[in-house]
Specification:
The chain contains twelve helices and 15 strands. The protein has 381 residues and is α/β, with parallel strands linked by helices. The chain binds pyridoxal-5'-phosphate (PLP).
Length: 381
């Protein structure tokens, strides 16, 4: 067996990345200041049509800042999905709050019906505050747009408004996805809630090596985000600080890579769409994206009744595949947290196998993955 290794999701760095990094080095601006940071922020802002954008060190850092920006503090609670990457949830604990875990719907994103039921039947709404069974003030709902799909934000935003919850969009996997119809037609993932966060980690649709971006329609909130991310430094000469801040600002080198990547995002999405359709043409039934959106086709989720055997077989054949994340309410740090009627997420957890989805995947690679998957699925019948 000497087949080429087919990775799950790797970056595609054939644009201006090298030129821009060289430019940053030639200018000798490599750290947390420099022209590429502004250019990258402006490019993201223009692409997703937000009021502004603040670049930071990672998606996780952006989510941590979002908790602070939404006033989430110790003894508060935040409603979160269980089917997601743990980086979405840990920031709730960073600020001393508790997560409350929700199930997913068929889009793999938070189930709005169960969210509503939870708020109606397990909480009290007192003096304009939603209070959970242990007396915590639920301040926000954190929505994750899983795999580039979009959550049902129409319904979730209505529930949030009714119960005075802030909406934090973890759009780390969904840069480029937008609604085609409905109340939010034309709006991009990340730009609808109070605050949205993107990630530019190496496996995301565009990468800056590592990095994140906070977007919002509220400039005051964004200015505060920038302040917090730069050690809450109020002036550059005397270094006065009015609060505890963080070293969360993106570097110029990261922004140079990120800007070059963003220039190519629509090409990446086109390729990912073609590859997604190619799997479907070969009768590999990937979980569909919602009809009413333009997804970014970031990750491809295949449902198998023999998840572990399929993973083993692909691995032996030099094809990298992966199950979905361990459900967060079952991970050690969150075993004692509240969860509400989690059913569908268990079903998906048992069956999802993520298939190779890099934008530089070629037709032959897909044919090989298809052949190996079908081989194993026939054996398991
Ligand atoms: C990647 C990811 C993050 C974290 O982003 P980093 O930039 O790696 O810190 C958060 N949430 C979800 C759902 C992600 O997929």
């Amino acid at each position: 067996m000497n087949h080429r290794f087919i990775p799950l999701s790797v970056p595609n760095l054939k644009g201006n990345e090298r030129n821009y990094v060289n430019e940053a080095i030639d200018m000798e601006w490599v750290s947390t200041g420099g022209a590429f940071i502004d250019r990258f922020e402006n490019a993201v802002k223009a692409y997703v049509r937000s009021e502004g954008a603040v670049a930071c060190q990672s998606g996780t850092a952006g989510l941590h800042l979002s908790m602070l920006l939404c006033g989430v503090g110790s003894d508060d609670a935040v409603i979160v999905p269980t089917l997601t990457f743990i980086a979405a949830v840990n920031p709730v604990r960073y600020v001393g709050a508790e997560p409350i875990f929700m199930d997913c719907d068929e889009s793999l994103c938070m189930d709005p019906e169960k969210l509503k039921e939870y708020c109606e039947t397990c909480c009290k709404f007192l003096d304009g505050k939603l209070i959970d069974a242990s007396g915590r003030h639920i301040k926000a709902v954190l929505v994750v747009h899983v795999f580039g799909n979009l959550a049902d934000l129409e319904m979730i935003c209505d529930i949030a408004e009714q119960y005075h919850l802030k909406v934090i969009e973890d759009a780390t996997e969904a840069l480029g996805s937008y609604y085609l119809s409905g109340r939010f037609a034309g709006k991009f993932a990340g730009t609808i809630g109070n605050v949205g966060v993107y990630s530019f980690n190496g496996n995301k649709i565009v990468t800056s090596g590592g990095g994140g971006m906070i977007v919002s329609q509220d400039m005051e909130l964004l200015n505060h985000a920038k302040h917090l991310s730069t050690q809450a430094k109020s002036d550059d000469v005397y270094y006065s600080h009015d609060m505890v801040g963080y070293n969360y600002r993106m570097t110029n080198l990261q922004a140079a890579v990120g800007l070059a990547q963003l220039e190519q995002i629509e090409d990446f999405i086109d390729r990912k769409k073609q590859n997604y359709c190619c799997y479907l043409e070969h009768e590999i039934n990937l979980i569909p994206f919602r009809k009413e959106i333009r997804p970014n086709y970031w990750f491809y989720a295949y449902l198998s009744n023999n998840r572990d055997k399929l993973i083993q077989h692909c691995t032996e054949q030099n094809i990298q595949v992966r199950p979905v994340w361990q459900l967060i309410h079952t991970t050690t740090p969150y075993l004692n947290s509240t969860n509400f009627k989690i059913e569908r997420a268990l079903y998906y957890y048992d069956r999802i196998v993520c298939l190779p989805c890099s934008s530089n995947l070629c037709v032959d690679d897909i044919a090989r993955v298809v052949q190996i998957v079908k081989e194993q699925e026939r054996l398991s019948l």
